Amino acid sequence: MAAAIAEVLPLDMVCLEGTIVDSRPDPIEPGTQLDVIVLPDANGTYPPDTEVRCGGTNFTLADLQSLTPIEAADPGLKAVVDGWIADYGNLPADGWLVLTQTDDRATMVRLDGGSFSVIRAEMGRNGWVWASSSGESCDVSRRLPDGMGVVTWEFDPAFPAPDASTTELHLWALEAGCTGGSEMGDRLLGPQVVETDDEVRIVFASIPLIGDQNCPGNPPTAVTVVLDQPLGDRVLLDGMLIGPLSELLPD
C-alpha cells in the first residue's frame, strides 16, 4: 500500500492511522466439509450470543431479549423513524423498538407476530440518518460463517414425497444469492445431516461468486441424502432454523 501511495504523494506528506491489513482470510475451498449445525439444549434453547438472521437483518438472540422502546432510545433514532413514517406513511408510528445499536449503526424494528418491519440508520456527519428499510415475515435462523452463502432446499418434484419408510431423500439445493443464473457445481458445500430421535436436520451452503451478479433465477442442484434409518415420524428441518420470530420474543 505504501508503494501505491508514494506514486501519488511523497511519503513524508502522508499520515496513516490504524492497522493496515494486506491479506484477506483464506477462501473456502470446494469440497470443504460443512459443519455448522448446532442442536438446542434439553430445554430447546440456544446460547444468548448465537448469531442469527431474520430476512436480511442480522442480530443475536440476546438482542431479542433487550429490545429498547424507541421513546427511551437516542432521540436521533426516533427522529429517523418519525421522518421515515412522515415521508412514506405506510406503517404505524407506535411500537418501534431498537434491536441493535453501535456507535455508527442502528436497527429499529416493529414486531407484529411473525412480521418484521425494519428501519436502519447510520451515523452521519450531523447525527443519525436513514440508511434503509424493509419488511418481511420470516423465521429466525442461525447465521452461516463468513465466506459461505445461503442455500435453501426443497423436495425434488420428480420423486414421491417422503414417508415413514423413506431412507433416501431426493432434494433440490437452491442458492439464495445472485449468480447470473449459473449452476453451483463444486461451489456447493454439504449436505450436513444430523439425525436425532425426533428430527432430521439438513443444511447446505455455497461458496459465493465474487463481484456483482445478475439475478435471473438460480437453477436447482439435485442431491440425494441417504438416512441412517427410515424417516419414521421424525420432522425434516432446515439445519440452521431456530424458530418462528413470534416464539422467540420475551413475554
List keywords for this structure.
251 residues; mainly beta; six-stranded mixed beta sheet; 4 helices; disordered N terminus
Structural write-up:
The protein folds into two domains: 54-137, no CATH class; 144-242, no CATH class. 11% of the residues lie in helices and 37% in strands. It has helices at residues 2-6, 61-64, 75-88, 245-248; strands at 51-54, 57-60, 68-69, 97-101, 105-112, 115-124, 127-137, 139-142, 149-155, 168-175, 188-195, 199-206, 221-226, 235-238, 241-244. The strands form three sheets. Strands 9, 10, 11, 12, 13 and 14 form a six-stranded mixed beta sheet that branches. A five-stranded antiparallel beta sheet has the order 3-4-5-6-7, covered by helices on one side. Strand 1 (51-54) and strand 2 (57-60) form a beta hairpin. It is globular and about 60 Å long.
